[in-house]
Predict the 3D structure of the following.
Amino acid sequence: MPNRQPRMSNEDHQILKFRPRTLSRARGGVRNASAQPDARFPSGDQTAPDDYRHRMITNVAAILFTAVLTFAGIWLAIKLADLRKAQDCVLMGRRDCAHISSPKD
C-alpha cells in the first residue's frame, strides 16, 4: 500500500511570532487621538483594552442567570415527580391520592 501522506511545501506553513499583550493606554484611560497606529498591528486593527469592571459585572450576571435557571429546573423536576406520583395513585384506582394539609395548632 503506498504511503498517502500529503505533500507539504514550505510555502504552506507560516510561523507567527508571539507578541505579549501590553498596555497601550495611559493610566487615565484616554488615548491621544492624533497618535499613530501601533506598529505591532500592521493592518491598523487594535483590540479594545480590557474593561475589568464590565467583565466582572457580566460574569456576575451570567452566574446569577445560571443559578436561577438551575433552581427553576430543580423546582420543575420536583413538581413533575409529585404530579407523576399523584397520577400513578389515581390510575391505580385509589381514592386517597389528594394531599390534604391540616392547620398547625
Notes: The helical segments are 52-91. Residues 52-91 form the longest helix (40 residues). Residues 50-95 form one domain.
